[in-house]
Specification:
This protein is an alpha+beta fold and 102 residues long. The chain contains 4 helices and 3 strands. It has one domain. Helix content is 54%, strand content 15%. The two termini are 28 Å apart.
Length: 102
């Protein structure tokens, strides 16, 4: 699960480093669309994962790894977002600069 998030983040960062600002804008738009759809998704798919591409939910699955594989297979040239359908979003501590001082 964390490995998948790192892989998605790494892909986005690589695109940004290569000057592809569309990756960032696309992710932001997809996340905003997900937030707007979240109440409906929670009623029907709580605890599952949504794949969002171009501000549309294209697939929902209970298995995040299977959804990631589907995204890479079916949409290899598209930027997308995989989000857990839950009331609060997970927060990952990436061990930033604040942890270095300790």
């Amino acid at each position: 699960m964390i490995e998948d998030a790192i892989l998605r983040s790494t892909t986005i960062e690589r695109k940004k480093a290569n000057g592809d600002s569309r990756a960032d804008a696309s992710q932001d738009a997809d996340f905003e669309a997900f937030q707007q759809m979240l109440p409906q998704l929670l009623r029907e798919h709580k605890g599952e994962y949504a794949l969002i591409i171009n501000q549309q939910v294209v697939c929902i699955d209970a298995d995040e790894s299977a959804l990631l594989e589907y995204a890479y297979t079916e949409f290899p040239d598209k930027d997308g977002l995989i989000q857990p359908i839950q009331e609060s979003l997970p927060i990952f501590d990436m061990g930033g600069a604040a942890n270095l001082a300790e």
